[in-house]
Amino acid sequence: MSVLNSVPFEKYHGTGNEFFVVDAEDPVPDRPAFARTHCDRDAGIVLTGSDRRGADGVLFLALESRYDPPRVVMTLVQPDGSVAAMCGNGARVAAAWAAERANTDEIMIDTPAGTRRATVDGNEVNVEMGIPSFDPRDVPLESDDELVEGEVEGLTVTAVNTGVPHAVAFVDDVDDVDLESVAPSIRHAPLFSEGANVTIASPDGEGGFRQRTFERGIEGETQSCGTGAVAVVAVAKRLGLVSGDDPVSVSPPGGALSVTVPDEGTALLGGPAVREGNGEADIVFRQR
Questions:
Q1: Protein fold of 2-129+273-285
Q2: Binding residue per annotation — 78?
Q3: pLDDT in tens, 94-130
Q4: Ligand-binding site membership of 260 (annotated)
Q5: Phi, psi of 228 (to 5 degrees)
Q6: pTM to 2 decimal places
Q7: Identified catalytic residue from 87, 157, 200, 261
Q8: Catalytic annotation on 39?
Q9: Is 66 annotated as a binding residue?
Q10: How confident is the model at residue 144 (pLDDT cuts 50, 70, 90)?
């Protein structure tokens, strides 16, 4: 491994989902190596005054302020070096980062999953998440049929794409599930041709849901997953557990998110995006 120079970064989190943010104008030639090195939870970057190393991914953001509203091109490189098509919490972080620089409260976010509109009010960010799809071609599935409450590796799941694929299971209590043991076999099940995030949910007793997600590309549970929160509500509507167009509270371990999945139109995800600090990160190349 050779160190060429360093690049400035900022660290943000959305309900505990942590990201390093790098301005795309600062060149990082080997983005996968950069993410694998610095996101590592045992040996990655740690901010001064923090005891938590690494992150759940690196957001490479390119602000294009000449547009009205301004646009930000978002590329999320995950800790395993892969690129995620969409990330709800990451999109909210991208919107907060771009809105501050463009001095605006409305941002268009260009992602591999499509363009999403976001509005920013202080630390609170709401972002359009597209229309959830159960179509087996969109998830995608190695099947011609939708997967709705089907058994996969011992868990009853429903498959939906909310920008990325999710296998969603409703359980009595999310705390009773050993997610790190249960999820990997579902995440890698042959039925999911590109793999899947594994999300479990249980009613919170107040009309909302508690959520836990094992994320593809991180290969472990995260404190929050925005696409997973949208998946929970989309599947809950499909199964008749909720109805209507009102926002639903979904609470992963890192905090509460607001999710709206209307009968028609795009889903919405709302919650905080918080800047934690900044620093300098070595640009590294993995010798092959």
A1: Diaminopimelate Epimerase; Chain A, domain 1 (3.10.310)
A2: yes
A3: 999 999 999 999 999 999 999 999 999 999 999 999 9
A4: no
A5: -70, -40
A6: 0.95
A7: 87
A8: no
A9: no
A10: very high
